[in-house]
Every structure is written in C-alpha cells, then in structure tokens.
Amino acid sequence: MALKKVKGNFERMFDKNLTDLVRGIRNNKDNEAKYIAQCMEEIKQELRQDNVNVKANAVAKLTYLQMCGYDISWAGFNIIEVMSSNRFTCKRIGYLAASQCFHPDSELLMLTTNMVRKDLSSTNQYDAGVTLSGLSCFISTDLSRDLANDIMTLMSSTRPYLRMKAVLMMYKVFLRYPEALRPAFPKLKEKLEDPDPGVQSAAVNVICELARKNPKNYLSLAPIFFKLMTTSTNNWMLIKIIKLFGALTPLEPRLGKKLIEPLTNLIHSTSAMSLLYECINTVIAVLISISSGMPNHSASIQLCVQKLRILIEDSDQNLKYLGLLAMSKILKTHPKSVQTHKDLILACLDDKDESIRLRALDLLYGMVSKKNLMEIVRRLLGHMERAEGSAYRDELLFKVIEICSQGSYQYVTNFEWYLTVLVELIQLESGSKHGKVIATQLLDVAIRVQAVRNFAVNEMSTLLASYPIAAQNSTMHEVLYAAAWIVGEFGSCLDNPEQTLNILLQPRQVPGHIQAVYVQNATKLFANLAHDCLEEDNLADVRKYCDQLLDGLPVYLSSGDIEVQERASSAFMTVQMLKARLAATTTGDGTAADILDDVDVVVLGKPSIPPEVAALIREIRELFVGDLNPVAPKAQRKVQLPEGLDLDEWINTPPQVSSESSDEEKFSLFGHGVGEDRETTNGGEHRRYRQVEQTPEEMERLREARILEQTNNPNYLKPAKKKSSSQDYQNAENYDEIPIAEIALEVPLQIHSTKRSDKYLVEQQKSSSSSKAAGGAHSKKASKKSKRHSKKSGSSKQQRYSESDSDSDDPKPLHVVNTVVELPEGAILSDTEDKNAEDLDDPHRALDIDLDAPIEDHRPAQRNSSSKASRSGGLLGEHLSTKAASAAAPPTSNDIVAIDAEEAGSKSRHRHKKDRKKSKKEDKKEDLLEVGQEDKKKRRKKTKMAGEGAEAANNNGGGGEEEARQKQKKNKKEKLSKSEQKKLMSGYEEALGISTPSKEVI
Q1: Positive or negative CA dihedral for 469, 474, 479, 480?
Q2: Alpha helices, DSSP H, located in 795-835
Q3: Which residues are bridge partners to 154 per DSSP?
Q4: CB 975 within 8 A of CB 959
C-alpha cells in the first residue's frame, strides 16, 4: 500500500500543471490546435484517477482552456466532484470552473443542491464565502427556492464577511425567485443599520437595485437613508443613496424639499467628481418634482451650472463629457440658465473628441430661440467648412435640420431663410447620406407654408437646372425627387414654366423612382401650360408644348425601370391623342396641317382652339387639380374596419395539409426523382421512389454538363479567370511597377465665403436694433418699476421680469405654418399607440411587486412546502405558513416626519444618547406588557374589531359603532406615548415647517 502511494506521488511529479499548460501553448503557436488536443487527452486521463488533487489540477487547466474558447461542458460531473472536496484549495478551483461552465439552465445543477447547502452551513467562513461567490453565477429558480432559507440564515451570521456576501447573494435570489422578497425584506432592512460598513454598503446596493423597478416599496426606508446620507463618508455608498433619492422624490415632493440643503452642502464640499455629478443630477430631479416654475431655487440651479462649467472646462475628456451630459438635463427645465454659457458650448464643437462634439450639438438643440436661431445655424454652417470626416459632417448637417424643424418650426421666423439654408446644405457636395431628410423638409415647407410657396418653387427650378449628379455613395440626389415634385405640383407659381419643362425632359443619370417623378411632373407642367394657352386661346403654343413633350418622352420610354416606362407610356399616349384630335379638328383629314398653319397665321390671323380640344385639355387638367394636405403619421392605423370584415378569416377554405400530400408536392415540384418508378392502380396513379447512388463517372459527366450549361447561359455570372502560378510569380516580382492611385480621403467642400442666408441674419439684426432704440424710454421706466418691486418681492420677480423682456425681444414670425393634417373621419390624433410595451427580457421585471399588498393565503396549494419548511426551521417556510401582514410598512407622511425628527435631533445626538437608551428599554417593557395583555385574536386581524363594532351597532341600534371607534383610538394612543408624539411633532415643525402635516402620527 505504501509502495503504491509512493508510486502515485512519483508519477505526479511529471504531471503538467496550469503553468506548464500556458507555457506550452505559447511555445506551440504554430501547432496550437494539435497541442491543445494532446493536452485534452492528458486531462481526460487525469480526471479518471481517484486522487482529488489530480482532478483539481485537471479542472484548473480546463478552466483556462474554457477562457480560450474551448467547450468543457463534457466535464460537468468532474467539476462537481472537485466542488465537493473537503480541501478549500480544491473547492475554490471547482467553484471557479462551475461559475464559468454552468448556467441557470444546466441540467447538472439538480445534483448540487445538497452539496451547496452543506457548504453554506460550513464552520469555515471561507468555504461558505467561495460557495456564495460561485453560486451567484449559476443560480437557477429551483436553487433559489431551495436555498433561500440557508442564505437568509447567513444574513444573521456573526461574521461580517458572510453577512455581506449573503446580502449581495439575496439580490440574485430575488431575480430568480421573487417570492423570497417579502420574507427577506425585514432582514434586509436591518442590515442598513449594521455596525459593519461593508454590510451596510451591500444592503444599500441591493435596495438601490431593487428600487429600479418599483421605488414606491422603499419609500418607508427614507429616514434610514437620510441618516446614512448625512453621516456616512463613503462616497460610493453616498452615490447609491443619492440615486435612490432621485427615484423616490417624484413619489414624495416633500422629501425633495428636505434634500436640497444636504445635497447643496455636498456640492460645495466634495472633491469627488463622481459624487458631484450624482448630486447635480439628483438636485435637477428634485427641483423638477417640487414644482414646474421653481422660482425659489434659482440659486441651486446657478450653483449646479457653475460646477458643470468647471467640469466642461476641465482637461479630462471624461469629465467634460459628463458635464455636457448633465447640462443637457438642466436645459430641459432651465434653458435660460444654460443659454448664458452658449459660447462654452460652441467652443466644444472644436474639440478633438467626436463624442464631445456630438454632445455639444445635442445641447445646441435645446438652446435655440427665435432670437438666436439664425446666429447658431450660421456658426454651424461655418463649422462644417472646417469639419473633418464625413460622418461628423453628416451629423452636423442633420443637427442643423433638426434644430430648425423642432416643434413644427416654432423658432423659424423667416422660411425664405430656411429654404436658402437647405439649398446651401445641398450644394455642399459632401457625400452626405441625409438626402432624404433634406428632401422631406423641402416638401414639408412647400406644402405647409403657403406664403413662401412662390419662392420655394422658383428655388427648386433653379436647383433642378444647376444641381450636378453627386457620387454613387451619396443620397443627396434624393432632393431632385422633392424639387421635381414641387415644380410640378405648384407649377402655377413658376416664373418660367416652359424652361422648367425642358429641364425635366432632359435625360439624366438618376435612379428610377426619381425619373418617374420627372415624367409625372412634366405631365403636370404640360397640363398647366396647355390650360393657360386655353385661357389665352393660343393654339400655336399648345402644338409647341405637345411637340416638346413628344420629343422628350421617348428617352424615358426605354428606361429600365418599369414604373418609368408605365408613366412615360401613359403620358406619351395622352399627348399623342391630344395632338391627333387637334390635327383632325383643324384639317378634317389631317393631311395638310402644316399648310393651314401658315395660312392661318398670315391670312386669317391668330387661330382659335376647337371645342373638342379644349374639352380634352380641361379633362387632362382635372387629373392634377386639388390641394394636398400633410397626412398624419398614424392615419393609416386609425382607419376603421368596415362592419362584417374579419381580417383573420380565410378568404378561401384552407387546404388540408397532410404528410403524404407534402411529400408528393415536394417531389412534383422538381420532377421525378432519381430512380422513380410509377405504378398504376385502380385507385389512380401511385408513385414509389427509390434512391439510386450514382457512380463517379456519372457524377463527373453531370458536373461537366452543368458547367457547359452555365457557360452558355447569358444570365449566369462567370467567375474570373485564374492566372497560372508562373504569371502570379512574375507579377509578384514586378509589384514595384504597379501604378499607385491616389485616394481622396477628404471630400472637398464647396462653400462660398458669403452665403445667401447671411442677408436674412443682417436684416434681423437691423430690425432688432431699431426696435431696441425705439423702446429705450420704455425700458428705463420698466427698470425703475423693477427696482421698486425688488424691495418687496425679491430676486425671483426680477428674474421673471428679465425672462419676459427677453421673450418680448424675439422677432415675430413672417410666415404661418399650416398644422392641419389629414385623418380618417372620426379619428383623433393621440400618442397612446406609441408607448413601448414592457420589455420581456428585463431581468427586473419580476421584481415589480407591491410589498404593501397583503399576502394571500393559499393553504391547499402550499401546504406541503410550508410544512416542510416549517419543520426544517426555515424563515421562508415560517413566513409562508402563516398569514402575515405586509413585509414593509406602507409609505406615509410619517416617514418624512421621521426624517425631520432625525435631523432636528442630530445637533444634540451625543447629549441625549443615554436618554435614548433608557427610553428604548422602557418601550420594550411596555411592548412586552401590551403583548401579554392583548388577546391573540385581536392582534391577528384589524377587521375583527370592525366586526365587533358592527355587532354592537346591530344590537344597540348604532351606538356600538361609536364605541368601537373610540377603542381603536385608545389602542393607537397606547402604542405611542404623548411625550413621543410631542417630540416628533416638534422635530417635524422645526426641521421642515410644512404647512399641512399629516394629523395621524403613528
């Protein structure tokens, strides 16, 4: 036996450990796969041995190979064997491998329940600690349900190391088994006041994560968190608590009023930038929840903005980004405070970091007003000249459009300026991918702003004549779609419609859908021109326009796009029919039309249009008459279904699907199979298929036939011819002679130094300066009045005056935007359909439980599990076996009272420490006496007292109900002594001073 043991130890000297494996992989980079396959075989041999240390060494190597991407799921049983080892070093290796290899859906986890429970109850705290760490990575729903009691027991351990890990582990249990949240919540609440700071931090972390889904459940913990926030020096825990308060403040606005002062003190005192950022975020959320106007907290906003300016001016790019991010949140509620730092935001556009430039662009979106819109757009257009990279240039272009079009163009006062800006963006030739966005804007402005329609139509006519076709990767040619549609739809506004018709009929290398719009709107222009000739009774121009259209349309008739062909054919036949009728009515037989034209012009004077031709022109014109309004984005979904229409009902009876028919169809689609036999029976034709294996000669013959068919097929793409190896070698030797083509990495921008849009900015500045000069006397009187009012009302009214003055200085809009949209009859535009449904993949979705709701008593369904848990002494089973009250007290105004009382007594905390201890002992004695005196039936349900009152009311004719109410009031007064009521109320009034506090103080 001893010899065998010595032999085993001697063989172990030559085993490869993890260090040898890593060294071998580095030395065999050329044959890495072969070396790892050899190591896998060695590992499998090691796993067959009885020595646990050898198995642990093999599992450690498998863990490293799993990190490299190799599958080790086949070694699940061996990993469990190493996990069950009594040695801590082996157990740690096993749990590490399990955390990487196992997942919640692993089938082997059912074998680990008793082993994990044994490790959790181990006397060695490190065994339990490594178990909790590994279990958090692969815990399943069944493990959570079975081990919840054991983990909750560890939350009361005497060792802070285990308490901290157990508290963190309970969060994983809650995600997999949300029913454990109710019984575990009281223990979790106790850990917030644990003497160990690590356990406190863990409890704060868990509750903050739980509050992400339903923060209302944790409003009752506000006093404890407020105490931690004012006494703790742990920045990490302060960040978590402040985040939680930001979520709780919208539920209780009075809590926000209490938070302003401590948060402001932290902003002044802290040097941690992360804590400063969270404080500013929470202050913003608090001020939003307190009121909409927030006139009394302008100093807090100014402080936040000044601190954020320090972050933005910092050299650290991360701090600069966070400062811009927080500034965008202030911008939503206090745009005036942020607009004063417009120069700082514009300076960020020149930053070398593209993410900071994009964040600055987002800020500019909310900083615009009617007064500064033209100035900001001018600076952005100038910035595009210096911008590097087409992606950022595209973002700049999109942001300019987004800034101008926000709120149905609420800040655009001159739409001629906006159309000029759009044309300048088109002329940049920067290879932009936002051509459709610009085209949509052109269409929207031309349709909705009628006052600027004449200007828009003539601008689009000029654009059609001067726009060059851009590169293939650009989408800017989409603006030709909008331009062609505008000049055709509103052709009556054109200054020179005949020239525009010639432009539309000129052949251009544009996509098919744009050619189709060219043809359609050329027909519209022809109808307008012919109708004008009809009103002027000008027959010669009608013939000229017919010839012009008939000469230009044949180019589109041969287009490769079927839509273009169809529209061109329809237009061509219509115009040809008009010309034929015109010739027939003027000559009778149409043989001497040209001679009669000369006679009419010279002898008879100007000919008139025949009635038949005039009627046809009017009919063509009627095809395109009518105004088009914008269609609401939800108009289609609001179309009501006709009565009796069922969209889910089959139009025809569905075919019967069977396995036999599907097999027949499968073979009939591709003809008869290889080696198919047909047998004819009385019931019809019966097919029997047999598979025949082909010989290599037959397969080669079929392959050659297929290649021959492919070479003769003109629709089949031929592969490029391969060069011989000798040619490749010669070409490789002469690679220096290959010419080098220069690639234009930067797209040149063509922006003129003086833009047409600048003249509108100059005109606006002149008008604003004249209005200021005219209202100078009025401003002096207003300043005198503001001084008088400042003595009475303070700085808040001064700010209101300044804001109203700045709003009155905004230029008045020159054009009106039509906001009418088309909807089906009886439909109303609403945003309810756009609300996103609940994310089914959200891991916190199951935690959306109401802790205040009473627990339902499902006795028949839970009898077995509750009895087992109660026999084992588990806290969870004890909780489920009894019909208990809610785990957390409902959040009332008394929680805020407790915060105020805590803050009011914080100054004299050390002075009255002994008095508190005495009062706590007296309270415990009183509680014990009350428990002994009260009946058990009265303690279980409050409804029993109401039932007794109802019985007394029935017996005494209503007098007993009054007695029951008095009994309830007496019980409440006994639970809370008068001295404690006075102390709470005094602290409440001193700390906060809320005008209407809750009357019930419990």
Answers
A1: positive
A2: 795-808
A3: none
A4: no
Compute CA distances 271 → 115, 299, 305, 847, whole Å. Answer: 48, 20, 16, 36
Going by C-alpha positions, the residue among 733, 166, 764, 82 that lies closest to residue 411 is 764
What's the chain's average pLDDT?
74
- For residue range 102-120, what is the model confidence (pLDDT) as tens digits? 999 888 998 999 999 999 9
pLDDT for 363-404, tens place per residue?
888 888 888 888 888 888 888 877 776 788 888 889 899 999
pLDDT for the residue numbered 647: 81
User: Smallest Cα–Cα separation from 949: which of 969, 931, 977?
Assistant: 969
Q: Inter-axis angle of helices 415-426 and 373-386, to 10 degrees?
A: 10
Task: Give the C-alpha separation, 95 to 83, whole Å.
Answer: 6
All residues at 6 or more sequence positions from 419 whose CB lies less than 8 Å from its CB, including other chains: 442, 445, 452, 455, 456, 459
Helix (H, G, I), strand (E, B) or coil at 838: coil
Residue 292's SS3 state is coil
Q: What value does the mean pLDDT take over residues 914-934? A: 49
In the prediction, which pLDDT does 302 show? 85
HSE-CB at 797 with a 13 A cutoff on CA atoms is: 12
In sequence order, what DSSP letters do the residues of 900-968 get, joined into one string?
HHHHHTSTTTTTTHHHHHHHHHHHHHHHHHHHHHS-HHHHH-SHHHHHHHHHHHHHHTSHHHHHHHHHH
Backbone φ and ψ of 964, nearest 5°: -65, -40
Distance (Å, rounded) from C-alpha 131 to C-alpha 573?
Answer: 84
SS3 call for 678: strand
DSSP state of 631: B
Residue 509 pLDDT grade (very low, low, confident, very high; cuts 50, 70, 90): confident
DSSP assigned state of 87: S
Helix (H, G, I), strand (E, B) or coil at 257: helix
Nearest to 976 by CA among 934, 932, 923: 923
CA–CA–CA angle 143, 148, 152 (5° rounding): 150
Rounded to the nearest 5°, which phi and psi values hold at 271?
-110, -5
CA distances 281 to 227, 305, 554, 662, Å, are 20, 11, 66, 63
Rounded distance, CA 991 to CA 897, Å? 9
Task: Enter the tokens of residue 114.
Answer: 């008793």
Beta carbons within 8 Å of 347's beta carbon, 6+ residues apart: none
